[in-house]
Design a protein that fits this description.
This protein is an all-alpha fold and about 90 residues long. The chain is built from 3 helices and no strands.
Amino acid sequence: MAKENTDRTTLDLFADERRPGRPKTSPLTRDEQLRINKRNQLKRDKVRGLRRVELKMNADAVDALNELADRRQMSRSELIEEMIMAQLKL
């Protein structure tokens, strides 16, 4: 019998063949893992005294912020926080 690469019904022909993809290291589904990771991230942020703020801006402003943050070697979030704090001190 010829071996067809797309045929997965004859398992003994493919027993030693590694399947592509990420190996399963957790018994949880990907969705459950993401939910747990997000919950843990929120707990870490709360301990650090951080609060979430959402902001919608046009793409040109975001590009300018990204460029400035890269030049100053900081994250965009840190740059926005620094700018707001400087403005509030006035």
